[in-house]
Structures are given as C-alpha cells and as structure tokens.
Amino acid sequence: MQDKNKGWSGRFSEPVDALVKRYTASVTFDKRLAEFDIQGSLAHAAMLAAQGIIGQDDLAAIERGMAEIRDEIRSGSFEWLLDLEDVHLNIEKRLTDKVGDAGKRLHTARSRNDQVATDVRLWLRAKVDEILSLIRALQLSILDLAEAHADTVMPGFTHLQVAQPVTFGHHLMAYFEMLKRDAGRFADARRRINRLPLGAAALAGSGYPVDREMVAHSLGFDGVCENSLDAVSDRDFAIEFTAAAALVMTHLSRFSEELILWSSPRFGFVDIADRYCTGSSIMPQKKNPDVPELVRGKTGRVNGHLVALLTLMKGQPLAYNKDNQEDKEPLFDTADTLTDTLAIYADMLRGVKVDKEAMRRAVLEGFATATDLADYLVKKGLPFRDAHEAVARAVRHAESKDCDLADLPLEELKQFSALADEDVYAVLTPEGSLASRRHLGGTAPERVRQAIAKARTELG
Ligand code: ARG
C-alpha cells in the first residue's frame, strides 16, 4: 500500500506498524538540525544547477521554497510530522508541496546517509566554536580570581592531607592549564569534523557529475571526506567531540569537588554566592552547593554518552546502518550539558568569596613546612634522607606539644639537628616556603603573576 507522505514507500505492501513508526522516527530530536539541513540542501542544489544536473529554474524554486520553510521553522509554525520520519523528509516534503517538481529534484545525487552526516558535522562545528568561546570566558574568569589571590596562602594537598603551602592563585591556575588543553582538543577535533560527506550518496558515491569541492567550499568545509563508505558511516568525529567534552566535565567535576569541600564549614575556605546554592526544606541552617554538585553529577551523564557512542559504533559493518541515528541524542545532550556548565561556571567563580584567614590557619595546622625544614638542613650539608628522618622526629615532637614547627624554640629544634640556627624560622613560615619555589611552574607569588600575565597574552 502506498503511503504518499513517505520518501520511500513505493516498494512496501503494508503501512508501518504504529509503534514501529514511533520507534524508527527521529524527527522529535533531529529537527534540531533543520537550519543545517537547509544550508546543506541549498549548497547541494546550487552545485546540481552549476553542473547542469538540474535547471536554473529548479534552483530558483528550491531557494524560494527553502527560504519560506526556514521562516516557518524559525517562527514555530512549521508542522513536524512523525509520519515523515526525520528532519530530512519533513523538509523535503514541505518543499515539494511548495514548489512541485523542483522540490522532487533536490534529492538527485544525494542520499539521507550523506545528508545526515553533513548536517551533524555542520551542527557540531558550530557547537565547537561556541564551546571554544565559552572555555575562553571561563579561563578569563579563572585568571581574574587567580590574580586577586596570587599571594593568598593555602594548603596544597596530597591524599587530601595538608602537604605544602601553595598560593590559591597557583591552585586556580592548574585549572587554567587543564582548560587550555581542553580548548586544544576541541580545536583539533574541529579539523576532522570540518570535512564534507555529501557526494558519497548512499555509500558508493554518485553516477552524476557532482562537484564535491564546490559544495565543500560553499559550506565552509576544509575539504571532502575522501572515501564514500567512510563518509556515510563513521562517527568518530562525534566520539572525539564527546571525549573532549567528557574531559572538560571531568576537570570541572574535580574543581566542583574542591568547591564543595572548601565551602563546607569544616574547611570554610570559600563562600559560594547564594544564587548558586539552595537551602534545605528541613534543616534551616543549610546552604547547599547545588551547582558544583550537579556539575559533578552531570559529568557522569556525559561520560555515559561517550561510552554510548563508542558502543554504538563498535559492531557496525560498513557502511551506513540505522544504528547511527542513535548518535544524535547523546551528542545533543553532551553539547547542551557542556555549554550550560561552562556558562554557569564562569559566572559562579565571579561570586566566590575567599576566607584568607581560614586558608592560612589550615596551612599552620598541617606541618606544611616540614619539607622546607628538611631542605634547609640539606643546604647546610645533611644528606636528604637523614634530614627527612630528623624532621619526621621534630614533627612528632611538635605534635605531642600540639604546636607548629615554627613554635618550637631553637634549643628543641637543635635536638633533632645541630645544624638548625636562628635563620631556620625564615623557612618555617608559609611565605618563606612559597617564596623559595620561584622556578618556572612554581607557586611563588611572583611566578604565579608571571603565569597569569602569560596566560592573558595567550588568550589575546
Ligand atoms: N534519520 C536518519 C539518521 O539519523 C537519517 C538517515 C537515514 N538513512 C536511511 N537509509 N534510512 O541516521
């Protein structure tokens, strides 16, 4: 039985089962590709006309019809039909309704297989550009906070135990570095996304004299996908994008974990602005860091999308299989989650208030300058392993007296090493410890300021 709505019903003898129709349709989510679908169709049609495959009058009719359809979609008046399966058939049917045979000629030398791969690449390229500018905005926000805290002493942790003093600015700049690599990954993925599948048709290419370079050029692609089977079937570019997104989320999840810890009353290092927190409906005293918690939670969702896409691909023989229709929802959700997270994060950091005193107190509680004392003894001639042992005993002693190393009188310090002198107290302060680490990549305030200045130049 013929279903006149369809682009493919000619060979079928019964209509598709209602549940199957819903199961196989993608229009509910792929309508999001509409603008790019139209863009791709216009470039394809212009090429067909330039090559004499369709007439100039057909091209003019297609352009007129597509302009109207674009307006309908933008204004929300376009009627999406599940019967028409996906974004491609919906738009093509509407075009044909408007301009007749010219609309039916649009699909010459094309398949939905190369069409959808083109649409997704165009969509993703725009997303990458948006993400790159959002990462940049977040980096700028980090730089501002780091600059304000280039001298702020805080404990650096290993194993979540106080390890050595660092500056808060230095700590923040670690995230700047992560985001810099993240931006590099997106820029790199963009080069592979930005290739044209059109011309591959269903899988084997087209028997018409198509000019793929012309279409690539008009759509702003850097070139064409050079194997027709590969062009319609692989989604590695989507997987790369999602992997890069999962890494950004993972970095921000770590940052979030720190904000959650630091804003808890036990740490009390930072206060997150109220607009990023919520209260408890039962415990009146609570202010919960919901946004960082959700960033941490949503990282699981993006990581899941990465696994979904890898799994989607792994069993597919060449070339196109309908499995690939399942690439869209994970991809869309990955991009949405990431863009929202980046935008929120940049602003949330502007609302972070730092309690410098709390940070400093925590440094003093943790024997954070023990390594500096060992280094001091080494500089006076003691082998490092012996210095390590001497300081370990001094720490045990200070612990039993419930005081910091800097609070021990010189006679007591001398019991652990006779090499200790009055000048030892200069290295036992957090500031002394910081100042000594002034090499490239170190935490000395002057170095942190240099790193920030360099970062600002790089960001332009
Ligand atoms: N909706 C399909 C997808 O997302 C479009 C391509 C369909 N191709 C086909 N031969 N059924 O992949």
Description:
The protein is mainly alpha-helical. It folds into three domains: 9-108, Orthogonal Bundle (Fumarase C, Chain B, domain 1); 113-150 and 158-208 and 220-355, Fumarase C, Chain A, domain 2 (Up-down Bundle), CATH 1.20.200; 361-459, Ribonucleotide Reductase Protein R1, domain 1, CATH 1.10.40. Helices cover 63% and strands 5% of the residues. It has 20 helices and six strands. The strands form three sheets. Strands 1-2 form a two-stranded antiparallel ribbon. Strands 3-4 form a two-stranded parallel ribbon. α3 (34-50) packs antiparallel against α4 and α7 (112-148) packs antiparallel against α8. The radius of gyration is 31 Å and the shape is elongated. It starts with 17 loop residues before the first helix and ends with a helix. Bound molecules: arginine (ARG).
CATH topology of the largest domain: Fumarase C, Chain A, domain 2
- Beta fraction: 5-15%
* CATH architectural category of the largest domain: Up-down Bundle
The average pLDDT is 96
**Parts with pLDDT < 50 across at least 5 consecutive residues:** none
Helix coverage percent: 55-70%
The total of helices stands at 20
The molecules bound to the chains, other than polymers, are: arginine
CATH H level, superfamily name of the largest domain: Fumarase/aspartase (Central domain)
Sheet/helix structural class = mainly alpha
Report the principal-axis shape: elongated
In the residues, how many domains can be counted?
3
| Spatial sequence of strands, sheet with the most strands | 1-2
Please report the first level of CATH classification, the CATH class of the largest domain.
Mainly Alpha
